[in-house]
Amino acid sequence: SRQHLPEEGIASLRAGADIAGGVNATAYVLVVIIPIVFYLVQIDKSNILRLLGMVYVALAIGAVVLTFSRSSILLMSVLLLPAFWKAIQKKSNRKWIFLLAIAAAFGISFMPHDVLSERLNTLGPSLQSFVSYESVSTDDAEDRAFIYRVGLEIFQSSPLIGVGYNNFGHAFWEYQYYVPGATQIVDTTFRSSHSSYLSFITELGLMGFLLWLMLLFVTLRLLIRARSVFHKNHSTPPALFIQAVTSSFLLQFGYAFVRLVH
Fold first, then answer.
1. Which residues contact residue 223 at a Cβ distance below 8 angstroms, ignoring those fewer than 6 apart?
2. What distances in angstroms separate CA 123 from CA 58, 60, 111, 179, 261, one per listed residue?
3. pLDDT tens string 14-29
4. With 0-12 CB in 10 A as exposed, 13-18 as middle and 19+ as buried, what is 248?
5. Which residue, among 97, 15, 112, 111, has the nearest Cα to 50 in the 3D structure?
6. What is the pLDDT of residues 194-243, one digit of tens each?
7. Nearest partner of 31 among 67, 72, 2, 69, judged by Cα
8. Cα gap 176→192, rounded to integer Å
9. What pLDDT is attached to residue 38?
10. How far apart are CA 69 and CA 129, in angstroms?
11. Gap between the Cα atoms of 251 and 28, Å rounded
12. Which three-class secondary structure state does DSSP give residue 179?
């Protein structure tokens, strides 16, 4: 139980002991797959496939919540709310939404509410520590915000071309001492930027960062254009597939703020 585990043991278990990216990576995969599941449910009229799709979504919701991954819980909510609202407009879908709601309520009743509440309560201190140099009470929030502040110092040292690919960890050791308002992090491992945006802008500078953004937006534009073409030609399955891929792609934009998305 939680009472018999030291805090460092709990943290190690939450992170998956550095195996396969830990529970945060698991939550990331579960959320990104959801739009594809919605696509499969929409193109097939079989009740069995619809039931399997709803079972996956219900299990994914429970699994993601149990990982206590704040970014995944937030992005999953943003993804599901409009999808459920659209689905409930059709009377034929309401029974499936009702079954999903029952399954979700049943699963939530077994969740450790105190641990989940404790994890979500770090959101406020985390945001506060990003905009203020004052120390906050939540160590995890302070740690992540401190890394972002160090990243800003690294970027200011070489704004155009950056410090070089994969050099954030090396630069962190030096520039952590330039940031006030937090305890310096000194250890034997290189620190991760915890953000694709921060990683690109510090390692490759504005030039590399803008090139990366351009590639992302060109891809997004092509996806939107392809969906529009299929929709005009009344090719519903391909249009729905492109829509699902686009939704998964847009999730990467959100995840890129808080993790390294490859």
1. 242, 245, 246, 249
2. 24, 22, 19, 22, 21
3. 444 444 457 788 899 9
4. middle
5. 97
6. 888 999 999 999 999 999 999 999 999 999 999 888 888 878 888 889 98
7. 72
8. 13
9. 84
10. 19
11. 9
12. coil
Q: What is the pTM of this model?
A: 0.71
Nearest C-alpha neighbor of 42 from the set 101, 103, 92, 104:
92
Burial 97-118 (b: 16+ CB within 10 A, else e): eeebeebbeebeeeeeeeeeee
CA distances, 85 to each of 80, 163, 181 (Å): 8, 46, 44
**Paired tokens of 155:** 């970027």
**Per-residue DSSP letter, 158:** S
Residues 120 and 70 sit within 8 Å (Cβ to Cβ): yes
pLDDT bracket for residue 125 (50, 70, 90): low
Residue 259: other Cβ atoms inside 10 A = 21
State the DSSP string of 109-157.
TTS-HHHHHHHHTTHHHHHHHHH--S--S-HHHHHHHHHHHHHHHHHHH
Two structure tokens written together for 190: 């290189």
Let me know: does 60 contact 32? Beta carbons within 8 Å.
Answer: no
